[in-house]
Recover the amino acids of this structure.
């Protein structure tokens, strides 16, 4: 993982986009970007933005090797994830569901009502209380707190592992990390420490003077 810091307007985003985007494209890698917005403090929003752009790139460029890679990714995802895990992905990375076929064999899948990652974070960290109006806790939740967060992180790491295994290389660039949230930082840490996700580079940019104490 690479972190780039600097004041606002110093060209961090342009440096990364041009400095990595051009070489990555020539090597056949994908550069997928996402960013956090100070006006929308939603858990994982910047990471979700990057994953959304990744899916759009895969779906848009269905020619040649990318067409084959998209098909392999879809087939592997269908074999790898069950209905419960698909719902986990849908709750935090909704655009990634587009990588799955719309029909799933119901005879092999069972649906379990799990809390979303946002709800688990709310139960764990009161600092996300401002999101309470947009979320409601489910009294019938099967798992909560640390276990729910851990499961969701594991599911996302498996998703990245499948995708990256069928790409030549992937660079995820997440901008404005100074406005990120605890859930994102914990997720990024778990991805970096995983060690089994091939051909993945995560790049983050942030304004040091705006990082919360």
């Amino acid at each position: 993982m690479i972190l780039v810091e600097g004041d606002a307007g110093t060209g961090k985003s342009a440096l990364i986009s041009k400095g990595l985007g051009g070489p990555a494209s020539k090597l056949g890698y994908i550069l997928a970007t996402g960013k956090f917005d100070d006006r929308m403090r939603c858990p994982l929003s910047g990471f979700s933005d990057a994953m959304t752009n990744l899916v759009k790139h895969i779906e848009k460029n269905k020619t040649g090797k990318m067409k084959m890679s998209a098909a392999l990714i879809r087939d592997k995802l269908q074999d790898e994830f069950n209905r419960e895990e698909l719902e986990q992905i849908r709750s935090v990375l909704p655009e990634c569901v587009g990588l799955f076929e719309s029909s799933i064999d119901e005879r092999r899948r069972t649906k379990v009502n799990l809390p979303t990652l946002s709800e688990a974070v709310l139960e764990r960290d009161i600092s996300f209380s401002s999101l309470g109006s947009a979320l409601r806790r489910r009294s019938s939740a099967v798992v909560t707190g640390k276990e729910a967060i851990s499961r969701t992180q594991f599911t996302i790491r498996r998703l990245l592992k499948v995708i990256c295994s069928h790409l030549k290389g992937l660079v995820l660039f997440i901008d404005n990390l100074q406005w990120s949230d605890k859930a994102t930082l914990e997720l990024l840490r778990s991805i970096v420490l995983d060690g089994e996700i091939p051909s993945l580079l995560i790049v983050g940019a942030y304004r040091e003077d705006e990082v919360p104490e």
Remarks:
- The beta strands are 2-5, 30-35, 170-175, 200-206.
- Residues 1 and 202 are 5 Å apart (CA to CA).
